[in-house]
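Raw record, unedited: Stage 0 sporulation protein A homolog
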Amino acid sequence: MKTVLIADDAIFMRKVLGDILQKNGYEVVGEASNGREAVEKYLLLKPEFVTMDITMPVMDGVEALKVIKKIDSNCKIIMVSALGQEDMKLDCIRAGAKGYIVKPFREGDVLEQVKKLNFL
């Protein structure tokens, strides 16, 4: 079972993503409510991939992505953004994100991005 860390400042979004991923055979090994916590939990838990919200307190998702990529260049991170932040997509991909999901999303949107990580 592939492991995932979910980073989002909204409890509801962590729950929605967690439910989708668990229902489809992924194990949620941790959750983070800000970018700094995401970096710390990534180092501690070593998940096989991360879903990372862009807009979070303390450290935003883009900065957390960059920090994690410096530590582990092979990390697999899917960025999650709100409508209106689509202009961030290219910046995230350039920084090393492996996928990008726009809220509100459907289950199929999430699974499509996870499948692109080449686990299947």
